[in-house]
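Annex B, item 7. Sequence and structure tokens for protein A, then protein B.
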Amino acid sequence: MSGASRERGPAGGEPAKGEGTPRGRVWPRGPFRPEFWRSPLRGPWLTAVFGLVLLAGIPIVALTGLVSYAAYNPRLPGNDITPERGLLGFYLFDWPTHPVWLYRLNQGVHVILGLTLVPLLLAKLWSVIPKLFAWPPARSPAQLLERAGLLLLVGGVVFQFVTGILNIQLLYVFPFSFYPAHLYGAWIFLAALVAHVILKLPRAITALRSRGFRQELRTRLRDTHPEPPDPDGLVPVAPAPPTISRRGLLAFVGGGSLTMFGLSVGQTVDGPLRGTALLAPHGRTYGPGPNDFQVNKTAAAMGIREAETGPGWRLALTGPRPVRLSRADLLALPLHTYRLPIACVEGWSTEQEWTGVRLADLARLAGAADGSGVFVRSLQRGGVFGHASLSARQTADPRSLLALQVNGADLSMDHGFPARVIVPNAPGVHNTKWVRELDFRSFS
């Protein structure tokens, strides 16, 4: 029979007793055949262990991702990176300016925990892969719905992790806009995850109770045996001899997660650990001196010309009393210095000492009323963040600066010379560099 085969037992006859293969069923070749999957480690218990850890970690990754979107203050003009969000933005709230480390912590957890979970996610997918090739695809409407949900769950988590990892590596290879796709994908995946947990949690609890975790960690390779046959078809019908114990597999996956954590945590912790962040695109150094810290986009990449930032540069303050200021004029105003972190959506963050003029002082200079926000425009020509709105709360915070110096030295070109915005607890892209205009206005 071309393209298909009748299932046989190990000796070539009918399926052996207890293997769980229906007599006389016709199977396509390859992974659709139950005997194709032979690892003796697969089974409900191992799958439930991986699932339990992911169930603890993935909701945290999802929640911090949604909070990250709220940090952009998307209700303000120019900040909405997902204008078609509709009801998906029901939870949005006004992003605070303190504690100053909140966005740094949120985004660090989002990215680093996501990377740490990758080995566990791959192990979980490996443990259930026979289920993805179950044949026939559905034998009842209920099973068809279950498999459709499984497709959304697996497809959703793969899409979210792959696009997220590519984004933090600055590999913008998407044929679509990353931000709305990642937001919509998150909600689709979360809906599928909730449905999956409701359906599978009782069975997972039963599987976890079927054997002790500590006992399994003491089980050696020679004592490793397949789990009893299960209705989901995870246990192989013709298992191969084990080449690794379950405790060995758990150690391998756990070691992979610890390695991912160790190679990425330095981008958020910063300091001496920055050099260990080999998985982070910003884990390297940027030269000696006070400006030696991460940059997301260089001046050259954003089309900034030195002639625009030289002596002829002027900052425009737009308000009831429009003002134009040179850099010397700004340096003559009262300057303030604060040590503030700057954190980016890709997960990197650093804390530096910034010196500049308070945005609130510039708002008063332009005659702006109390409670005004500010629309910031940059000299940059490329990218999607050449402008941003800051809320009235952000503008009024005394630590919100138009920074002119960092760590006692003038800003470098790549860090936004001649002036950049630094706002406590704001996403990095809203700390606009190469500022050319501050438009103070009331956002209703």
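Protein B:
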Amino acid sequence: MTKAPRVALPVTRRSVSQASGLRRAPGDPRPRDWHRTIPGYAPTPLVDAPTLAERLGVGRVLVKNEQQRLQLPSFKILGASWAVHRALCQRLEVSPELRFDELRDRLAGHRHLVLTCATDGNHGRAVAHMAKLLGLTSTVYVPNDLSQPRITAIEDEGAEVVRVFGTYDDAVRYTAVQAARHPNQVLVSDTSWPGYETVPRFVVQGYETIFDEIDDDLRAPGTDARTDPHVVLVPVGVGALASAVISRWPGDTHTRVVTVEPDTAACVQQSLALGAPTNVPGPHLSIMAGLNCGEPSMLAWPVLAAGVAAAVAVNDDEARAAMRDLATAGIVAGESGAAALAGAHVLFRSDEGRDALRGLEVPADATVLLLNTEGAADPDSYSRIVHHR
């Protein structure tokens, strides 16, 4: 198992226009308008963390805290719910302008439909949660090494969980085969492959709600944070969320998008360094379970190649330390969510990171945005790491 370099810059940069490939078409419904119709919707907080800024030696650190979103400990429900909505509206041949309760009512005569996906944790739990809310069933495929607490959390949403004896990428391929064999299954994947692009595009568009909320906070009356951040650090698995970040802040703005991955599963970093999508063979055994992916999404790749300014790889010890640091700032971050802060430490406190920052023209008093993508998705693991060390 080869570990990735600490910081890598893309070998080439593509046209900025490629970073807009996943945006909604003019006139399409806004995901946030639909999310607001889901019971319990509320914006997640944008936390000002001066203690973290002091440790990093930057002007300001803001944390978009997705530790709890629509009853789940992860941002994934935003992409999954929008993709489920759009996929079901297409299946039923009804308008995507339907509210949540209207869609649920329309499904009364279609209880045979089964939502399905592969997951390394949070996406599958979100798809299962949506199935439960809409009165449908779900089947979720997981890699063999997924922890039992994460599997139990998916099962608690009412899903049938099937272990695939392989990696996350093996589970993705197996799920696609199973969905093709069963016409009643509605596949809701957050990664893409040739011939399967529409639903993953909806997943990325669903994350737009995060950035609408950030914009509201940055530009709220009486705040002093009315400009976009200089650096955004985003944990990355197959690249869906990172491509959404780039769609919001493409490479022609002053904002630099930096991806963070486990050093044993840094498929986006290696792809950027080689200039082409690259597979990083497993097994991928990092504690950052949601980031244990061996290849970037085909749909996300052109956007990542156009808009990622730097790619950082972190190890498990760094993720654990970041979880504890975030806890001292009052933020609950799981292993994958804490990767953003772990990457910030590498970027701003290491020689390799500082060299990259000079090339990216990031000011010394930069405003840094960290995306905490999950809370305590595995409560037992979180407790061991944060409270017992």
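Comment on protein B: The chain has two domains: 7-74+204-388, 76-196.
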